[in-house]
Amino acid sequence: MSERRVSRRAVIGAGAAAGAGLALPSGAAAAPRGGGRGGRGGRRRIEADVVVVGAGFAGLTAALAVKRSGRSVVVLEARARVGGRVAGHRLPSGEFSERGGTFVGPTQDRVLAALDRFGIGTFPTYDEGSNVYVNGGQRQEFSDTGITGSAPPDPLILPELITVVTRLDQMSTQVPVDAPWAAAKAADYDNQTLARFIADNSLTERFRRLVPAATRPIFGAEPSELSLLFVLFYIAASGNESNPGTFERNFNTRDGAQERRIEGGSQVLGQAMAKALGKRRIVKRSPVRRIVQRRGRVRVVSDRALVTAKRAIVAVPPVLAGRIDYHPAMPAARDALTQRLAQGALTKVAAAYRTPFWRAKGLNGSTLSTDGLVNATFDDSPEDGRPGVVFGFVGGDSSRRFADLDRAARRHTVLTELAELLGPEAMEPTEFFSTQWPEERWSRGGPVGIYPPGLMTTYGHAIREPAGRIHWAGTETSTYWNGYMDGAVRSGERAAAEVLEQL
Average pLDDT by consecutive 10-residue portion of the chain (503 residues)? Predict the structure, then answer.
């Protein structure tokens, strides 16, 4: 098939995944053919050793590793910005609030190393004072220094909580993070949902109400949507090579995944990586339409560039990677996986105030509620505490209900719930905003791809398997901290190592 024909089909082809763009050499090659402009529609023709699709943390990490090796690299991005599912919102004060990925914590070694490399600091998530817990209209304040950490020490369900969490932690040790589908009981675990497991291992409706309040913020999903095997893998992945994952580390603020924040907002790391890579190596607003493997090369067709490379790294969510037109077609297992591995449904809501008024009440801004759309909140204020910002997670069925409300109803509902959790001052924010990740064209949800029952054991093995000269990155491909910024960075490092070994 001719290049002309490829370009024409790309123009009319549907469903792009992530951006395409061009780059110039880090030391060698990567020179535009024919003077830079060429091809149909004014696309620039570029040659490079490696082309990376997606300028999120995974793609940028991979591209920097390729550049450091002395190879030429091109990063292609659909959005007008870098960062992927990490994005900031500038407040009127000039400070940034977080729309996407926010926290870093213990055992998240790779993202912490990246922050150190660029001289970006962190500060503790505000955690002085009490958490708030609401279940069935009953409100309780508690300290996360107790035996349950950030989980509520509700005396009516405490035995169930301890028993279930302990059992999940123990079961997760049987699940290898690099191949959860190979676990001895993988078929048994993958054939049931988390909801089924909870029903079989709990006594009270009160406890069963609590479980979705945890899965909606963590996965953007209901317990009935989640394979038990996937949940066990997620717990096992909440660690590193030296420290087994635990539910507590994933869920907690103190000594857990929500322990620290990034100075200036998480987006500063993506911006620093893009600056180090070089502006000329990233093309934004250029979705990839087609990837062709032919004659020992990879040709990536995007709205603004036609890139020819030796290897490609596709670093976007699987649901978007599956919308690219591949020639030859993807292996059946890979195609089946991307058809079924949808993103979670997660919306992030935030309200800003002149001061974090909840602190004066002895509250730290962290809440967990079974009763409303907002199941969990955190203090998102700048390090100096001005302005006061609180954000909440609205996930799963709650996110879908939120989407059905008009703008005024969304605001009123969320603020009313914040007032019940933190106090009446919550009704008078200086600013209110929300980010519906399922409606983000180049994410289609968040924070992670969700495995329903049966998928992981049947097609999970295809998540990282290269398809010819195409390699895969993105937090969904990570063996540790899957779904987190650390997982994205880890995946970029791994994909770059695979590619460099083949060049």
Answer: 35 36 36 43 88 98 98 98 96 90 98 98 97 96 95 96 97 98 98 98 96 98 98 98 97 96 96 96 97 97 97 98 98 98 98 97 98 97 94 98 97 98 98 96 96 98 98 98 98 98 96
User: Do 300 and 312 form a contact (C-beta atoms < 8 A)?
Assistant: yes
CA distance 437 to 442: 9
Rounded-to-integer distance, Cα 167 and Cα 197, Å = 11
CA nearest 85: which of 106, 119, 57, 59?
A: 57
Stated pTM of the model: 0.92
**Cβ(345)–Cβ(438) under 8 Å?**
yes
* Distance, CA of 156 to CA of 146 (rounded, Å): 16
Report the chain's terminal Cα–Cα distance, integer Å. 25
Q: Which residues touch 396 (CB under 8 Å, ≥6 apart)?
A: 212, 215, 216, 219, 220, 221, 222, 225, 344, 345
Characterize the bridge pairing of strands 376-379 and 388-395. Answer: antiparallel
